[in-house]
Amino acid sequence: MKQLYACLLFLCSVTFSIAQTLTGTITDASTQKPLAGVSVTVKGTTKGVVTNASGVFEITSKTDNPVLVISMIGYDKQEITASSGQPIQVSLVVANELLQQVVVSASRVEENILRSPVSIEKMDVRMIQQTPSVSFYDALLNVKSIDMVTSSLTYKQINTRGFNGTGNSRFLQLIDGVDNQTPGLGFAVGNLFGSSDLDVESVELIPGAASALYGPVAFNGLLMTRTKNPFQYTGLSAQTKVGVNHLSDPAGGGAKLFNETSLRYAQAINEKLAFKVNASYLTGTDWYGSNYTDIDPNTPVNQRGPSNPGRNALNIYGDEVAQTLQGIGRVSRTGYEEKDLSPYGVYSVKLNGAVHYRFTDKLEAIYQANYSQGTTNYTGSSRFALNDFHLWQHRVELRGTNFFVRAYSTAENSTNSYNSRSLAQQLNRTWVQDLDGNIVTPDKADATWFTRYAAAYNGSVENVTAGNHTAARNFADEGRFLPGTTNFNQQKDRLIHTAGLAGAGVLSKSKLYHIDAQYDLSSLVKVVQLQAGGNFRYYDMFTNGTLFDDKENKVRVKEYGLFVQASKTLFNEKLKLIASGRYDKNENFDGNFTPRASAVFSPTQNHNFRASYQTGFRNPTVPDQFIKLNVGPIIILGGAPANSAGLNAYENSFTAASVGAFASGFQADMQQGVSFSQAVENNKSKLVKSNVPYIRPEQLQSFEIGYKGLLGKNVMIDLNFYQSWYTNFLINQVVIRPDSPVLAGDGSINSAAAQDILNRKTQAFQLYTNAADRVTAQGASLGLTYFLPKGYRVNANSTWSKFNLLDANPNNIPAFNTPEWKTNLTVSNANLFDKVGFSIAWHWQSAFDWYSTFTELAPGRISSYSLLDAQVSYRIPTIRTMLKLGASNLTNQYRMQAYGSPAVGGLYYLSLTFE
């Protein structure tokens, strides 16, 4: 009995140590009011909670007298030793916030933002709550170094340090460590498939190369979003936003309603198990693409305009199909306006849930599932409607205090997505009549339309005025399906649901699988802080032959990466040295090593000087490697060697320019009476065998210096300058492959190959490859944060970016697409009066030329513009609710941010947030 009694006592003591519950209240030291949202964690573990609206917390611990870490943005962190059974009373003192911010992404370990080895920006929960922009993602525009372009109400793309685009495969976006890209597109579609504001805890931005720690996608930078842990952020949160846009829109249509509703619920069932669920639904009317500027490259600028028979209007599609008619001139088909083709009723649905299980205080398992669906319009080589696009993600993670192992999958379904330009062209091929009034098949429609036009213009059609372009067009357009009619809507629907060259539909049911891990070896090595990690990624693409040759030949790509990082502090922690290196291998390319070295010198806590050498690389996307699309006159061919096997496109072809020179010379000789064979011999030397290398990764090297420090207690300065060198940019090159060998046995141009060109025994290819040219970019930024008396806060920053082409061929270099100057100014006060706060954000950027494949690389001017966002908020503590009245682009200035994308006006909203 004594032994049994002793065992029971032992078990009780164990149970008590496991189950002891600590409770307490946290207050503000100066006001003695309770503080909600204070983080309370057990030191050395993953366990943590936040205080409720009354400042009360409850946390369990397995150890006697645990050390609790109590922290909140804007207050000094405290560590206290807790005793079981005794209520804990803690008063937090208002701190110098600028000394408290911690970041993770710069070095993949926690560190003070002032001592980050590279430039980094951060938005925390409080900044997200106070932003005047309609969402946290929109608010990124006011972050130093960021460029943002709008393709749609539901799609904004961000970039840093140049070479910007509307679909950015050079910039990595992570949400809880999960790459937010869609596998088929190869880039993240803004926040269309991201997180709602209610679940975002913080956002960190690294401008510039981050490949040394994060791999090939982080070529231009990294955006890391962290969501709220359900153990710490419990309870119900709800938010609704109602608003209006399209006020005084030059494109017409009148004001349109905007609505977004979000819910978040999280609960810790016990000390081991917690869960959260999120739901968000946004709906509104998209911005209109209504710029009808004539951009036809084959018409002199002074002859372009609405009366140009060969007009190619920017946001009218189908009029790209044009011919030069003998004795008439250049004529284009009648196109359809974007508003009649694109889905302007856009929406976004985001659903996700996560379960967290703590095996111990130091080991936590997570399973998360995300489902997103939405519609947006994206400006690429055309205007694409990502219509009812679906994305599924699953994430499993095991996380300890010094390691994590994470696996996730992403699967997409393009559903009803389509190419708006292809839709217009195909619509134009469904109704064309021949001269006898019979509707012709689509393959003959364009030629027949031009025949009708020429006949009418030349006076061959009764009751049609000869020599009149308007009359000729009206005759050629007889039977045209008009927008809004039954025939138009039926054909539009059919073509949207027809993928491939016969329709406009875009088909992709591609998948991505990823596993990564990291371990902190510092406790084992001790001499230095040491982290190591790696990842494996697998792409499984499916387009059913519409984009890849994947009906039978599966397109699958594997890649992996390994990294190690060592850091050491010297001279009483005044000097921090960090070195890291990463090796990445894609199965289709040689391995790539990307090192990074940095130093931070801190003569005092308040002054930190940094210098770093960084490298970056970008693997070609899967479409870059494996696209195989026969569009009739040309085959678009990805640059992976296996993709062109048997086609002889890279091995046996002429440059397109030399084929043009040969044809011109041949025709000139023939007109002078030279015989066919002799004309061939006279001009074949003008042909040049192409020397197009297979595709390989892009490369960059960058050097950066910077300073981040405090002047007094209320002013922070962040200054940096960088210089970058780029090589191996991905480009496209057109070649002509003859049926015969290009070279004869003696190495000269083969006469048979030259004759193949004249006899149309050739195939044109658009090949993906790299340019050997080298270019540079440099830039600088200055940021100031100033805390004024009575709670006012001022943030100001300016960024300068400069591109140097050097001796490179402009045709071989992607467009820089970045304004030389960007400036932001934000003024805010969360407590302007009792329960009332406000914030105002002003953005300005200089004018620049935008180049893209949408306009066949012809430049379009983006004028300088400024945007003003503002909000005023009112807190209702008794019902834990905040009311906010705000506006994005308060002055309602309609501005195009990327040439070919819509002009964006003001969005005015009222939001109600309950937490």
UniProtKB/TrEMBL annotation:
Q: What is this protein called?
A: TonB-dependent receptor
Keywords annotated in UniProt: Cell outer membrane, Membrane, Receptor, Signal, TonB box, Transmembrane, Transmembrane beta strand, Transport
Every TonB-dependent receptor plug domain range:
115-221
Domain TonB-dependent receptor-like beta-barrel, by residue range, is 413-890
Where does the record locate the signal sequence feature?
A: 1-19
Question: Is the Membrane keyword given for this protein?
Answer: yes
- Provide the Gene Ontology terms for cellular component: cell outer membrane
How this chain sits in the membrane, per its record, is: Multi-pass membrane protein
Q: GO MF terms on file?
A: siderophore uptake transmembrane transporter activity
Q: Which Gene3D superfamilies match?
A: Carboxypeptidase-like, regulatory domain (2.60.40.1120), TonB-dependent receptor, beta-barrel domain (2.40.170.20), TonB-dependent receptor, plug domain (2.170.130.10)
Keyword Lipid biosynthesis belongs to the record? no
Q: Which family does it belong to?
A: Belongs to the TonB-dependent receptor family.
Location in the cell reads:
Cell outer membrane
Give the UniProt record's GO annotations in the biological process aspect. Answer: siderophore transmembrane transport
Show the InterPro entries listed in the entry: Beta-barrel_TonB, Beta-barrel_TonB_sf, CarboxyPept-like_regulatory, Plug_dom, Plug_dom_sf, TonB-dep_rcpt-like
The main location class comes to: membrane
